[in-house]
Design brief:
It is built from 17 helices and 26 strands.
Amino acid sequence: MAFNNHTNNVFLISMRKVFRFKNPSAKISLLFFAIILASCNALKRVDEYELLLKKNTIYADDAKVNDEAIQSLIIQEPNSTLLGYPLRLNLYNLAKQNPDSSFQDWLYKKEKRKERLVKKLSEKQVNRLGESFLVKGLSEWLKNIGEAPAIIDTSDTRRTLERLKAYYNTKGYFNNNTTYSIDTLKRGQRAEIDYKITLGKPYMIDSIDDKISSKVIDSIYQLNKKESLIKKGEKFDLVDFVNERKRLTSIFRNTGIRNFQASSINYAITRDSSKAADDQKMDIALNIDNQRTRSNNQISTSDYKIEKFKEINIYTDFILRGEEEQHNVVEYGDYNIYYKDKLRFKPKTLADAVFFEKDSIYRELDRSRTYRQITNLNVFKYPSIAFATDSLQTGLTSNIYLTERPKYSLGMDLDVSHSNIQQIGLAFSPSLQARNLFKGAENLSLTGRLNIGSSNDRSITVNDNRFFNLLEFGADINLTIPRISFPFVNTSKVIPSYMLPQTRLSLGTSFQKNIGLDKQTFNSIIGYNWTPNDLKRHNVELLNIEFVNNVNPDRFFNVYQSTYSRLDDVAISYQDPTEFPELAPFFEPSEVGNDLQLIIPSGTTGFTESIIQRTVPSTTEDFNEVRSIEERRVRLTENNLIFATNYSFS
């Protein structure tokens, strides 16, 4: 700091601060940042007669439009920014546009430069030098992570207008007009684009008629006509027509019309498109044509018919080669179950997974539920469902082909980890899965866990100096049953099989050594879950029992260091052996300096008992602090038997 005396007796103070960076990486980062700032000319790649796009704005009848769906119709967007700074644009500007030409110019700029390089290296290495990262690769990398300048292209602007016009047509504004204006900014060669739409009057639905070729389709439509999404007197919206087609298609396919084609539904719209007429009324005609089929390059039409199931066949040992001649068959209810050699599934389990019923109409919903339930059993690969009709079309035959998964499967996981608790840790997790255990698609899984680790914690190495001195092992066994198993209660009416009900029985245990308080845990769970649809899931743990046994509670203060520090801070006032000779055996010299600290566990236990039992005088504040610490120690080291019931919905 320096003081300068001027003639007018005014003192000016000048200050200078010198920043020194000792870290080389900080210097490199600062240099890189300075280079970026030096190239902050956003117009570096913008030619003289070009404009850099800074902003797009859409106005509908002079009202600003912020709808993201409409904003996404704009083809050309401004360059992205980070906190208002066009970082990617400036990274792109750092790159050389033609690094190959720049290298060649440099190579031949001085006479005999190439010859000298060829003598030192070789012709091939000189050519490879032009392909190196510093010469070419860096520029390519900057271009890849950067962003080329968004230069206004009026052809893209006109295409955006076409998109906006088409969008508002779908919303009933068939007489809308679109224009744009490019407004240059004070900062040279920068501009904004305003898109302006004059909507006009919307077209309204005046009448709705229907023309349906098939009597069957017509009867089904009339029963569901009231729920139509297209209503008289409402504004035209193409989305309603699309959703109505989907609704009708779903209705027909779930009322026996297995092969209904969505393309059979079309709409004829009559309107006066002239602006002079000023008539915004629309007449809608719903047309549903007959089924179209192609055969021998010819298209023929036929009436849609309601199909009912005549026969339902389940093949449990299907092989892709299609070897069906050795199948035996058993009839169960509405189903014919085919198998080879021996039936490995209970017929009821297979019947509960299929939602087709004999003499019932075809429903697409039943087909989806059948796929979903069979897959959820986890004993078959993805099923194949085929349908066939006889020449007289007297009924529908469903053939369900199932390929069984392997009865047993083994797995093994291996993980290597590092943390502030352990230098290195290894985790092994073998698993065994047995499927269809009791012929009812019950699945049993057995998983083992073995974790070993290395720790430098002195409280551990004093008693165990092996390299791998941390150990945890355990096992879990889980049984999954594909139904709700509840004694004396039939839940199938409340939770039918299409909701994918499951009962889960689980047993597990784990043991620790030199980890925390060396816990031993035993747990068992009886739970249920079901899924009404793809968006909802219920999970109930009817009974969750866990027993926790702390094998080594004497390590409490080694584990909870903050609690130990609180107790040791209180003990500082009682370290004088002349004043408190009975407490002297509870202390030992600390590893740092000559200060004393409580011995774990004998010292912490003895000191706590002396304060709580009032064998030594103490202040009320110290007494309350020690009692609070002791209550926490007892609470966290006692063994626990925990009963819980949980319910979750997602």
